[in-house]
Amino acid sequence: EAQVTQNPRYLITVTGKKLTVTCSQNMNHEYMSWYRQDPGLGLRQIYYSMNVEVTDKGDVPEGYKVSRKEKRNFPLILESPSPNQTSLYFCASTAGHTEAFFGQGTRLTVV
Amino acid sequence: AQKITQTQPGMFVQEKEAVTLDCTYDTSDQSYGLFWYKQPSSGEMIFLIYQGSYDEQNATEGRYSLNFQKARKSANLVISASQLGDSAMYFCAMRAIGSSNTGKLIFGQGTTLQVKP
Prior knowledge:
The complex is a heterodimer of chains A (about 110) and B (about 120).
Chain A: E1 4-7, E2 10-13, E3 19-25, E4 31-38, E5 42-51, E6 54-57, E7 65-66, E8 76-78, E9 87-94, E10 101-102, E11 106-110
Parallel strand pairs in A: 2-11
Antiparallel strand pairs in A: 1-3, 3-8, 4-5, 4-9, 5-6, 7-8, 9-10, 9-11
Chain B: E1 3-5, E2 10-14, E3 19-21, E4 24-26, E5 32-39, E6 46-52, E7 60-61, E8 64-69, E9 74-79, E10 88-96, E11 105-107, E12 111-116
Parallel strand pairs in B: 2-12
Antiparallel strand pairs in B: 1-4, 3-9, 5-6, 5-10, 7-8, 8-9, 10-11, 10-12
């Protein structure tokens, strides 16, 4: 089954404690992205990747890091999380000429 | 710069009636794609329909159709015969095709639709 898998689904952490949200896709898609969703703001792109070792900043990259060492994986790293990073996060992948497939989402709370 | 605007934060529709969700966009790209996604209360993002900028006919997928007016830069979603299960948040999105921005999917703020029995 074609899918994008994110883990964990829910995470509560404390300010400053490094965390990683994993994302994996099994469709051999070139493009992968991370988004955060906040009420009234829709989904905003954090980072995206056009292929292995090729990444670029989205609209809200501050406080986040990503890496794309393999085509299927695109982890999101928060080196020092802060409460303003409390949000719903989505990973997505696409072949470029088709719709984006989304993971189930990760609800992150930073206290 | 690309931008998507959804001006209806919330809408109500009676069951079995049709409803139109508005979406306008702005882009300097010549070739682009327009998407609609549904997000039910469970949170997942469900792809509904796609319209390419060079497609001459409006896209349709079952009860969903996309009213594409290129000159007005609008891509409204029409849901016919609304069902209770259509109650959700709906997002309009856009992506450039064939440029360095192909990987960037830009979303609107979303419209919450509630279907009344």
